[in-house]
Amino acid sequence: MSDAMIIVLTAGLTATALALLGPFLVLRRVALMGDAVSHAVLPGIVAAFLVFQTRAPLVVILGAAAFALICVLAIEALRGTGLVASDAAIGLVFPALFALGVLGIHRYAANIHLDLDSTIYGEIAFAPFRTLDLGGVEVVRSVLIMGVVAAVNLGLITLLWKELKVTSFDPDFARSIRFSPTVVARLLLIAVAVTAVTAFESVGAILVVALLIVPAAAAYLMTDRLVAMVAIAVAIGWVSSVVGYAGAVEVDASIAGAMGLTAAVIFGIALLASPRHGLIARAVRRARTRRAVERALAEERGAQGAGA
Asked: What is the span of the domain harbouring residue 61?
């Protein structure tokens, strides 16, 4: 397998794992969750080093995952009180955890180089060089890990499809039929946290946030059906991976940056040209309505003139 194919496959599998969850975050208005997790993992990295006295990537990632879970559960707990809105809950929790991490580094690890690259600033161009030996067969670590995560996420949303759908659109109705919106939301956010942390090493935090939200937001503009929204988000993730890589190679630019920009361009096209919700379609409908109103007023004035 060529290096180019490994990079595109890594990005595509990461996009799949994230795009399976992203539409539910957009519908629940907690789209900044990925960004929150990317900052909230910092104290986990510090804690992992202090406890185990090692900067091994696996230990660092486990520490980051623990605080990612703390972050999403704290946000959901604040939302559950009914006193704090979703965006405010995110804005309260992740700065506090990030500040805790900054203080931890200043107090306990000021002279130590913590391996933030393995958790936050991952570089997808290095994916072909990170391999594992499984039974004498060398496999690319990012492809294996993100393939497993994507499969688990697919299984999760398949198993909980009805629950996710009803709690996303009508949580009050969900309670009336004994579906717990809180439990479903926590399972979703835990899946987001685990997916984001495992993807950080492979593609980096910026691309994780981009692939988690941008394809889902574009798909939201293109369809009113949830299953189509999820499928379109996954497709946009793959298109962004392929086209972004080709563009990066062509102009010798950052691969992750090109993929994120491609996703943003697709969103821009959807924002303008979506058949029902795009700006062009809205302008056309407004123009038609205005013309219809003007015709009705002209006919009414004509009728009044004839009656006089």
From this structure: 3-204
* Separation in Å, CA 41 to CA 46, 69, 193, 206, 289: 9, 9, 10, 14, 51
Residue 265 lies in a domain: no
pLDDT tens string 147-194: 999 999 999 999 999 888 888 887 777 777 777 777 888 888 888 888
Residue 292 belongs to some domain of the structure: no
Contact residues for 280 (Cβ-Cβ < 8 A; gap 6+): 272, 273
Burial profile 159-174: b = 16 or more Cβ within 10 angstroms, e = fewer: ebeebbbbbbeebeeb
Over residues 136-142, the mean pLDDT reads 84
Residue 254 lies in a domain: no
Question: Phi, psi (5° rounding) for residue 133?
Answer: -100, 110
pLDDT tens-digit map of 59-100: 777 887 888 888 888 888 888 787 888 778 888 888 888 888
Please check whether residue 167 lies inside any domain of the structure.
yes
Predicted pLDDT of residue 219? 94
- What's the number of domains the chain is made of? 1
Q: pTM score, two decimals? A: 0.83
- Residue 199 CA: distances (Å) to CA of 13, 18, 72, 232, 251: 10, 9, 17, 21, 25
9: domain CATH number?
A: 1.10.3470.10
